[in-house]
Amino acid sequence: MTAENEREIYHKLEAMKEIRNKTITLERLKRSILNEVRSGDQEGRCLAQYKREMELLQQEKMSHVEELRQIHADINAMETVIKQTEESMGRKLTNASRLHEDYRPLKAEVDMLRRQCLGLDRLPDLHEEEGSPITPDRFPASVRGSGVAGGAGGMGGAGLPTGVGGAGGAAFLPPAPRKPPPPPAFRSALQQDFITVSLRQQPPPMKSCLSCHQQIHRNAPICPLCKAKSRSRNPKKPKKK
């Protein structure tokens, strides 16, 4: 074998070695490329899922923002309703107090007429009527009301109204205790006028049951509510022979 052949074989061996090394490096790079592509595709699919989840979170956020906005709107509306209701309640209570100031002297006047002209009991107060939402301390006693009520209870002429819308609009002052009644003509006209109004507007005479303390008819022998026998607070004394 000549030297030239040996050099040719040596170059071929060197070339094969280089080709082998570069082929190994190429295969390594190819595997790396495939792995990176596969990983990239996987990350791309994950990225799409992440973006979808982000969209859902944004939608949920906007829904919560809308709910919060609606809640704030409802709170503002409820505050407005509460304020209007408080103002309406104040107006109604003030109006009720004003009407009660007119009702109190008129009732005292009617009770006085019933007692002195017809011998009837007084009408029940507002808190004494069945089913009434009014309590005894609902309306505080005023100077005007207490004066009228005191006069109607039998304290003479002090604090009583001087004008009576009865017979002919004449002035009427209640007589002092144990004094003779008004003249017959005036009393007869006043009785006739008041009986007409009383029968048309006033409830029947009532009394309190001694057992259940409910208002019943004054002449009822038995309480229709508790079935207790009605007894008079002032029973008639037997006549002495």
From TrEMBL:
One of its GO terms (cellular component) is nucleus. It holds the Pfam family zf-C4H2. InterPro entries: ZF_C4H2, Znf-C4H2. Residues 201-241 form the C4H2-type domain. One of its GO terms (biological process) is positive regulation of neuron differentiation. This is Zinc finger C4H2 domain-containing protein.
